[in-house]
Amino acid sequence: MLRVALVILVVLMVQQTVMVALRIGGAHPDLLWLLPITAALLDGPETGAIVGFWAGLSFDLVLPTPFGLSALVGCVLGYAVGSLTAAADPRAGWIKPVAAVAGSIGADMLFAVLGAILGQSQMVQVDFLSLFLVVGISSAVLVLPVNRLMRWALAEEGHRRSLVSAQSESRAW
Amino acid sequence: MPRSRRSRRTLTVIVLVVLSLSLISLDQNSRTHSLTSGVKSVANDVYSPLRQGVLDVISPIGDFFAGAFNYGSVQSQNERLERTIGELRAAQLEQGFERNQLRDITALENLPFLQSLPTVTAQTQDEYSSNFTATITLDKGRADGVDVGYPVVGAGGLVGHVIQSFHHTSVVQLVTDGQSKVDVTFGNGNQFLGIVDGQGPSSSMTADLVPPHTPLKKGEPMFTSGLDAASYPPGIPVATARTFHTSAGASQETIDVDPAADLSQLAYVDVVQWVPST
To answer: Which of B227-249 are b and which e, b meaning 16 or more Cβ less than 10 Å from the residue's Cβ?
Structure first.
């Protein structure tokens, strides 16, 4: 768990120092969702949900949005990505970028809708086209380094999806 | 997949979802909100210096590349700034007499004006930390006299108001945020009233509840009204009219406005230690 916590902290710092400055069309890349997505791809829905919950909670501490909302969305995202990709071949080159783009956009939509339900109506007033373009493209690019970090973190406790051997996965990289 | 593993997985997710919903409930409930606010406050006290340390390390690298790529624009910006400083110096000399007159009149009328209110100057640490809110984070908090609800001014007008205040940091909701509503007054003798609504960080603001065919001109300034129980002291520039028209049969004039403050220049702002009169 120590390595996972460290990775969450590093990603939080990168997000809040570098990514927030990269604003295009009023939106910036969002690394948070890549944590549960990569955890779910590497180790299944349960790990995805757990990593999503703790990553979301860490981000909730520093974001002005309702406390617990990122944790909820992160948890659901990790579980959904892990479940939907369970039958896919994890060595396939397309799976990481596709999961990153679809997962990040889906998570942003869920986050906005739940926020609006909680009384933060401004969360559905953003320019969704810019948001989805920026978050989608950046997630497709940044999923690779985040996946590396997550693989290192999950290797600590022998976490690995059982159907992927370390050797075959390293070939895929 | 074995049934026991699937059951455990489902149970884990259910527990995490319930836990998340409980945290959201605690945060939304006014009686228990102080609990989550306290946790965030402690976390921010730990996080802010850490984040500042990271920024101190990476900023020179970013500045180096930014300077190398934008040398031409920086040079022309510098020339523009020097010209503006010269113009402001001249204007300051001209306005000295008028300012004295205004101060005298305001004192006679017993109207509150911003210069008489105590302010706390703060530096902006962070802008738009979320894609879904228009907020900035300041380096001053409760320990420095910054509290929830205080107006924030700078860069030529109203910037917003404090929505979260921690020990040494605070979060300001900008006037462009979708949740922001400011009572304004405008026109000759400030005879017209309206509400300036934020429409989100990437959309223009609107002025609502203005009667149809209210006379306006492009660039018409709008100021905080300071009516009873208003959230802001009177006389702070909020916005300027950009476009306006009254549609046939409409119950109000459609007005798009621009923020009076330059929200791209928020390195330093003033927090006004002012609370609404109840």
So the answer is: eeeebbbbbbbbbbbbebebeee
Q: Which residues contact B2 (CB under 8 A, 6 or more apart)?
A: none
pTM over 0.95: no
Cα Dmax for chain A: 49
Can you tell me the distance from the alpha carbon of A44 to that of A26, in angstroms, rounded to the nearest whole number?
34
Closest CA in chain A for residue B50:
A13
Enumerate the residues of chain B whose CB falls inside 8 A of the CB of residue A23: 128
Q: Are A99 and A85 in contact (CB under 8 A)?
A: yes
Q: How many CB atoms lie within 10 A of CB A25?
A: 12
**Any CB–CB contact under 8 A between A45 and chain B?**
yes
Q: What is the pLDDT of residues A41-68, one digit of tens each?
A: 998 999 999 999 999 999 999 998 899 9
Q: Chain B residue with minimal CA distance to A69?
A: B24
ipTM above 0.95, yes or no: no
In what helix (H) or strand (E) does residue B185 lie, and over which residues does it extend?
A: strand B181-186
